Amino acid sequence: MSGNKRKNWTKALTIVMLVTVTGAIIGCLTNVQEVKTDRVYLMSSAGSVLFDHGKHSRSAESCAQCHHDLYSATQATSCADCHDEGYVADEFNHARLKEAHNRDCSKCHEEAETVVKPTSCRTCHPGQQPSEAQTNSCLVCHDDDYTPDMLEHDEYLEVEEHTCLGCHTPQAVSQVYHTNCTSCHLETLPDRFTTPGGDVSCGACHLR
């Protein structure tokens, strides 16, 4: 093979290799799909907490366990919207209904119209507890003749434009997290969230 032919052959082979490699790289880049994740960092002065919303939503009792102000307890969707006339909701308890609908409260409950979806728990829960009392005094709105036992809790909820915050004082955000998160973690994964001595391990949630 002459020198010119060898040079041409080498040049052609180099070009083919470059085109092949470039095509492979472009193919890999275009096939890369964005990985969706439900993970968010909850900012905290004690160290941020990595929170997996998807994982927690699958294991939580219901959406309303955290997003309790997003759903109306009194405005339930009619069962007839999805079921035939032979369906009787009374045959199922609330826990079984939640399981059947994958814990999605919106399957039965309408979203409260007057509530703006919060972007953070801090939207409603303050940074510090305003007072030790968890409920407001009835006398803030009522006269001295009023006593709480005049109405059942469900009857309070039926009062027009009545909200939870009308009676209840929202807990500080750190207290809410610690109360709800810690109790569940200690029950479900005690080995992961406790120290060898049995105390709560702050470092299991808070990243430094």
Would you spell out the secondary-structure blueprint of this structure?
Layout: H1 3-31, E1 39-42, E2 49-52, H2 53-59, E3 71-76, H3 94-100, E4 109-111, H4 153-158, H5 173-188, H6 190-193
Antiparallel strand pairs: 1-2, 3-4
Question: Which short descriptors sum up this protein?
Answer:
208 residues, mainly alpha, two-stranded antiparallel sheet, 6 helices
Provide an overview of this structure.
This protein is mostly helical. The strands form two sheets. Strands 1-2 form a two-stranded antiparallel sheet. A two-stranded antiparallel ribbon has the order 3-4. Helices cover 33% and strands 8% of the residues. The chain contains six helices and four strands. The radius of gyration is 29 Å and the shape is elongated.
Strand arrangement in the largest pleated sheet: 1-2
Return the average pLDDT rounded to an integer.
75
The largest sheet is: 2 strands, antiparallel
Between the first and last Cα atoms, what is the distance in angstroms? 67 Å
Assign the structural class, choosing from mainly alpha, mainly beta, alpha/beta, alpha+beta, or little secondary structure: mainly alpha
Rg of Cα set: 29 Å
Q: How many DSSP H or I helices?
A: 6
Outline type: elongated
User: Approximately how much beta-strand content do the residues carry?
Assistant: 5-15%
Count of strand segments: 4
Could you estimate the helical fraction of the residues in percent?
A: 25-40%
Encode the helix/strand succession as letters. HEEHEHEHHH
Which consecutive residue ranges, at least 5 long each, have pLDDT under 50? none
